[in-house]
Amino acid sequence: MAYDKFQVLTSTAYPLPIENVDTDQIIPARFLKATERKGFGDNFFRDWRYDSEGNPIADFPLNDAKYSGSQILVGGKNFGSGSSREHAAWSVYDFGLRCVISSFFADIFRNNCLNVGVLPVQVSAEFAQKLFDAIAADPKTEITVDLPNQKVTLVATGESESFDINGYKKDNMLNGFDDIDYLQNIKEEVRAFAQTRPF
Amino acid sequence: MQAGCNYKNYKFMSKTLFDKVWDSHVVRNIEDGPDVFFIDRHFIHEVTSPVAFVGLKQRGIGVMYPERTFATADHNTPTWNQHLPVADPLSANQLEALADNAAEYGISHWGLGHRNNGIVHIVGPENGITLPGSTIVCGDSHTSTHGAFGAIAFGIGTSEVEMVLSTQCIMQPKPKKMRINVNGKLGFGVTPKDVALYIISKQTTSGATGFFVEYAGDVFENMTMEGRMTVCNLSIEMGARGGMIAPDEKTYEYIKGRKHTPKGADWDKAMAYWKTLKTDDDATFDVEFNYDAADIEPMITYGTNPGMGMGVTQSIPNATDLQGGVETYKKSLGYMQFNEGDNMIGKSVDYVFLGSCTNGRIEDFRAFCSIVEGRQKAENITAWLVPGSHKVVDQIKEEGLDKIIEASGFVLREPGCSACLAMNDDKIPAGKLAVSTSNRNFEGRQGPGSRTLLASPLVAAATAVTGVVTDPRTLIKETA
């Protein structure tokens, strides 16, 4: 599924300084029953955003008006562990986010994000803490994520850190391409390879 | 390789089991990018595949090798009255989409009621689809289960399901390599589930992220294929993409003669290849860990990720004794309504769940029955016993385990993922405490507000007959 290009994003950010946030929290299993990719943003962090009666929990950052409209989420270490459900990455995107920053990502979630147009930015634990501190001091703190230069910057102070992404994925994100576009172009090579497989 | 290959270069050529299987499936290596990685076998189920088929239709592309994909319904299926129409319209809609897509693209489909139906990671090996040296993916993180056969198997997202359907490939950077050696003799009452929960408790829930694990040592060599499946299944719970064990005589014995296993001359040819599937003596890993079997006791978790586990006789660690965030740890214990220093033994339990791709096989039901036989289900316990497949149900009946289950006051349900992720009606109610043989104790995993203790089928059985968390070693006698 095609997504919008990602170039340079400057935005405020939702802070979620909790470790080991698993994909069952990002989107609980009972909301995986759609057969089309739509509406997942409504149930993003459903059980942390709403109480058992369905009332919003006001002080949960994703409900907190002072962060609303942010396109970045800064999460704790080991963000996105557990289930492979891509619905978690869809819910991030559908909620209006284009970038998740963390000091450590779970593998499958990171892959899924890259496949749906959400940029996972891994920074040092120290820089992640710096972001949390800055947001705590000023909820309107702006962060710039510059993909061409692979750099994340605290706008107010100019403090920055570079981040890794392989050249292939970077090119995909910059242009809004996905892996299926690539694979469609090498089908004959795949067919020839398949002939060599014993089973 | 250049001429004049010296010993040093030879060492460089040595490969791990993982290297051998991975490297033989690389169609193309992209510079500064992932490998184009060929997939031999692909499993799909009703929850993570429908959107992939929508994608194919939107792009106007088809399925390249329908014979390499296998569909089974498991995640949201009811485990009671499966002969009736599925009551939940959303679940019914997903099941119908799976059936329709399979029919449209010529993919084999084991829907609800089909005799080969069951949990995807249980029916794959049962039907000989899972083979040594193959690559297997599924839109489910516990696909790592199939690594027990010396396959590279891991979970993928729905975009990748679409890639495999359309071109039989995904784009993957090669993970780093970890070997975990466990040697020695396992103690009485210590099962493969305990070995896995022990390793995860040492590694933490993220310790193996970025790695593919090979399990080695005499504990795994002596383990049954079902035990190996339980261990490999849980690899993802320490963050590893997958885990694998070198195939041996037990592996060949298990797969021989099954529905999709090579036959005749193809079998001989395959065997010649499979015999090469072991880590070379001088091959190296990025990281290696050694554990002693004697240190492992029956395990139980106390928190909200599978890394928060301990021996069943131990008490909950203090936050300050652990690495990692104190606040996150306290939030987790708060959710569980536990305190630092609490003992788990004797805690009153409401639900017991036996089942899932982790512990829903015949050996798990045998273990459970070895404890409940001659005893009665405790009154305060609601128990859900959910076999992993119809074949497991058949075997339970053939061995007369159903009689033991019934006589002890338990009821055998029908196959499916069930309360492991509670997408069907098998939901643990808010606040209730469950001892589960499944794989995740995340907040709300088994139903909104549910509290889960992960453990082996023996611990689950001991708890089911006493009503409180119980060390199974107190109920069974050690045999020589």
Strand and helix layout:
The complex is a heterodimer of chains A (199) and B (480).
Chain A: E1 8-11, E2 13-16, H1 23-26, H2 46-49, E3 72-75, H3 87-94, E4 99-102, H4 107-116, E5 119-122, H5 125-137, E6 143-146, E7 151-154, E8 160-162, H6 167-175, H7 179-184, H8 187-194
Helix pairs in contact in A: 3-4
Chain B: H1 7-13, H2 17-23, E1 26-29, E2 35-38, E3 41-44, H3 50-59, E4 69-72, H4 89-105, E5 108-110, H5 120-126, E6 135-138, E7 152-155, H6 158-167, E8 169-172, E9 176-183, H7 192-203, E10 211-216, H8 218-221, H9 225-233, E11 242-244, H10 249-255, H11 264-274, E12 287-292, E13 299-301, E14 309-311, H12 326-336, E15 351-354, H13 356-359, H14 362-372, E16 382-385, H15 390-398, H16 401-407, E17 433-436, E18 451-454, H17 457-466
Parallel strand pairs in B: 3-4, 3-6, 4-5, 6-7, 9-10, 9-12, 10-11, 15-16, 15-17, 17-18
Antiparallel strand pairs in B: 1-2, 2-8, 13-14
Helix pairs in contact in B: 3-6, 7-9, 14-17
Q: How would you characterize this protein structure?
A:
Chain A is built from 8 helices and 8 strands. Chain A has 199 residues and is of the alpha/beta class. In chain A, the strands form 2 sheets. A 4-stranded antiparallel sheet of chain A has the order 1-6-7-8, covered by helices on one side. Chain A has a 4-stranded parallel sheet with strand order 2-3-4-5. By secondary structure, chain B is of the alpha/beta class. Chain B folds into 2 domains: 285 residues, Aconitase, domain 3, CATH 3.30.499; 176 residues, Aconitase, domain 3. Chain B is 32% helix and 16% strand. Chain B contains 17 helices and 18 strands. In chain B, the strands form 5 sheets. In chain B, strands 5-4-3-6-7 form a 5-stranded parallel sheet, with helices on both faces. Chain B has a 4-stranded parallel sheet with strand order 11-10-9-12. In chain B, strand 13 and strand 14 form a beta hairpin. In chain B, helix 3 crosses helix 6 and helix 14 runs parallel beside helix 17. Chain B is globular, with a radius of gyration of 22 Å. The N and C termini of chain B lie far apart (54 Å). The relative contact order of chain B is 0.13.
